[in-house]
Amino acid sequence: MAAVRNMKATSGGREDESDEELAERYLDVSEIYSTTGSEGAYKYFAKQADKDVEDVIVKSKEDATVELIISKKGGGLPDEGLLTRVKEYLEDGNRKPLTDRIQVKAPEKLEYNVRLTYYISSDKKALVDKIKSDVDTAIRTFNLWQTEKIGRDINPSYLTSKAYGNRYKKSRYSYACLYHHSCRVYSCSKEH
Questions:
Q1: Secondary structure letter of residue 74 according to DSSP
Q2: Which of 17, 106, 165, 190 is 20 to 30 A from 66, comparing alpha carbons?
Q3: First vs last Cα of the chain: how many Å apart?
Q4: Core vs surface per residue 63-94: b (16+ CB within 10 A) or e
Q5: In sequence order, which ranges of 7-127 are alpha helices (DSSP H)?
Q6: In this predicted structure, what is the pLDDT of residue 135?
């Protein structure tokens, strides 16, 4: 055999998984052998249903209803298509106990503002545009980090740690968030 090649373009697969993702999947796989519909099994199967599922919260209600709240990779809210694919995958008779009723929902989005004021020393005047660009990148990184996990506490000190590498002298921030709930995805609008 001289060569092997695909006759058609590949599609629908996953990118290489990180070491952290592989370790998490390895630890989660033991949960799938439960016959009682464990929280871990539902999380595992929801993530296996579609490569775009980032985080899963599982809630059990008294009437055998299992509510799964999922977020989408990249910090986005899942669309109806993703919710439907996950639900159909979970409703396979080999993945859930017969009596469980499955509900798959998007988390509630809570918007908040972070005001970051930063000061640049006078000897860095020539770098103002570069520093501003770096701070904008830090804000985008913060927003993605903030929305990767459902219910993650708003933590402006993470933003400060990302932005401090951008050579400004000192900073001050404030944020407003009226309500925090364990099934919310946060998105940030910037003011600086």
A1: G
A2: 17
A3: 61
A4: eeebbbbbbbeebbbbeeebbebbbebbeeee
A5: 19-28, 39-49, 80-90
A6: 80
pLDDT at residue 180, rounded to an integer: 33
As separate numbers, helices (DSSP H) first and strands (DSSP E) second, the chain gives 5, 6
* CA distance to 21, 53, 55, 142, per residue, from 18 (Å): 5, 15, 15, 20
SS3 114: strand
| Rounded-to-integer distance, Cα 38 and Cα 36, Å | 6
The structure tokens 């995805």 sit at 185
45/89 Cα distance (integer angstroms): 8
Segment 166-176, tens digit of pLDDT: 555 555 544 44
What percent of the chain stands above pLDDT 70? 74
Q: Mean pLDDT, consecutive 10-residue segments, the chain of 192 residues?
A: 79 74 71 63 89 91 87 87 94 76 89 74 79 82 84 79 62 42 41 42
Cα gap 46→56, rounded to integer Å: 7
Q: Beta strands 65-72 and 101-105: pairing type?
A: parallel
